[in-house]
Design brief:
This protein is about 55% helix and about 15% strand. It is built from 14 helices and 13 strands. It has helices at about 10-40, 45-80, 85-110, 115-120, 130, 145-160, 175-190, 205-215, 240-250, 270-285, 300-310, 325-340, 355-365, 375-390; strands at about 135-140, 165-170, 195, 220, 235, 260-265, 295, 320-325, 350-355, 370-375, 395-400, 405, 410-414. The strands form 2 sheets. A 7-stranded mixed β-sheet has the order 7-6-8-9-10-12-13, sandwiched between helices. A 6-stranded parallel β-sheet has the order 2-1-3-4-5-11, with helices on both faces. Helix 9 (about 240-250) packs parallel to helix 10 and helix 11 packs across helix 12 (about 325-340). The protein is rod-shaped, with a radius of gyration of 39 Å.
Length: about 425
């Protein structure tokens, strides 16, 4: 049936002519949608991605064919309007042949040049290394008052990055509540493992169970926490008790005319403070001495200074000061300097940590003994442990880094 569009009312003719074109485009869109639905649901994500990658090439071919048809349509309509049916037939047949030849040629080129075309479209799979999952280690860093703790945090971040981790660092204030909130935030983020130095050893039961429920292993660094029955202990630290006993022995070999002992205790309910106190007391007992005064400085430089100020009337009794970290030892030295006393002569100081500032004071003879902690090795052990527990979480894991007793005469491994 032939429809003569050169006569009659224009509006009905245009409507009748437009409807098939619109329906054709809708069917083309329906085809694309059905293709994506079937491939995505029954074949898989990779196949759906392949369909999407090939779509620009198919669109290019369709638009080229449409261009040929539009050009041929002008020629056919001109011949039809002139009433030259023979020319109309010739142009239609030529258009059909040209479209078929182009389609075959285009298909052959796509088959032969599939790899270069996909590379051009960035559709080839990237190397496995680029697509590999990068593990994330969440590190909770707590505000510190000495350079040793700062250096420990820096070493931990560096070691984690060297082991292939992306590090998500969470700096917090020196409170257990702040540490718990940071750990919970990292659990929500779904990192592969969390490393933190707990201020105290108790009060972690709930967050440990939350981490286990979310399959995010927790690794306590330096200081230990009390384990929960259904959550295995995973800890990297130091043998503080053994180090403290050997450091105290080294200090007490230097006899002073005054045998009073002042202990600058760290954070109450912290594992390092408890173990250092235990080791020092064992050595003091062997030397026939005991702790004369024990005051809590909470690991702070300012408190180390304040405690000596509070003890001013009793300092003439004190021959030995045991400071459980760098900060409190530095605070004690600050006070002694400001009040005309000579650390290293009027009183002997033993401190635990070993940051750059404390070692500089030892070189000057103002700190007699340092119970030094190898934070570089601690960081390496932590990064290695994080890799292991990320692959096999919630298995017991404990490792201890090296320690050493530093005196003015030399170094001895603890």
């Amino acid at each position: 049936m032939t429809k003569d569009m050169t006569s009659g009312k224009i509006t009905p003719l245009l409507i009748n002519f437009t409807i098939p074109l619109v329906l054709g485009n809708l069917f083309q869109l329906t085809y694309n949608a059905a293709d994506s639905i079937i491939v995505g649901k029954f074949v898989g994500e990779d196949a759906l991605a392949a369909v999407g990658t090939a779509n620009p090439l198919m669109t290019l071919a369709i638009l080229f064919i449409n261009g040929i048809c539009l050009g041929a349509g002008i020629l056919v309509s001109t011949a039809f309007g002139a009433g030259d049916t023979e020319l109309v037939e010739r142009q239609v047949s030529t258009t059909a042949i040209a479209g078929t030849v182009f389609s075959l040629a285009f298909s052959l080129l796509c088959i032969l040049l599939a790899n270069p075309l996909l590379r051009l479209l960035q559709g080839l799979a990237q190397p496995e290394k680029e697509n590999a999952h990068v593990p994330v280690l969440g590190i909770v860093t707590t505000a510190a008052e000495d350079d040793r703790r700062e250096a420990q945090s820096e070493a931990l971040v560096h070691a984690a990055e060297e082991h292939g981790f992306k590090v998500l660092e969470m700096p917090v204030e020196r409170t257990q509540e702040a540490q718990i909130e940071a750990v919970r935030a990292l659990i929500v983020y779904q990192v592969d493992a969390i490393a933190f130095t707990p201020l105290v050893e108790s009060g972690w039961d709930n967050v440990l169970r939350e981490a286990k429920s979310a399959s995010v292993p927790l690794l306590s660094i330096d200081r230990a926490i009390r384990g929960v029955d259904d959550v295995p202990l995973q800890h990297i630290g130091f043998d503080y008790a053994s180090l403290a006993e050997q450091a105290a022995d080294a200090l007490l070999q230097q006899r002073m005319p005054r045998d009073g002992v002042l202990e600058l205790y760290g954070t109450v309910n912290a594992s390092d403070a408890r173990e250092i106190a235990r080791g020092c007391r064992a050595s003091l007992e062997e030397h026939g001495l005991t702790v004369t005064y024990s005051l809590c400085g909470d690991g702070m430089r300012s408190r180390g200074c304040e405690i000596l100020e509070e003890m001013e009337d009793h300092l003439d009794e004190i021959g030995y000061i045991f400071a459980q970290n760098d900060a409190m030892a530095l605070g004690a030295v600050d006070y002694l300097h400001s009040h005309g006393r000579k650390p290293g002569k009027d009183v002997l100081i033993c401190a635990f940590g070993g940051g750059a500032e404390l070692r500089a004071l030892q070189k000057k003879g103002e700190v007699a003994v340092i119970g030094a902690l190898d934070d570089t090795q601690l960081a390496e052990l932590t990064a290695d442990a994080a890799q292991r527990i990320a692959k096999a979480p919630w298995k017991p894991y404990i490792a201890l880094a090296d320690t050493a007793v530093l005196t003015e005469e030399g170094t001895a491994d603890a």
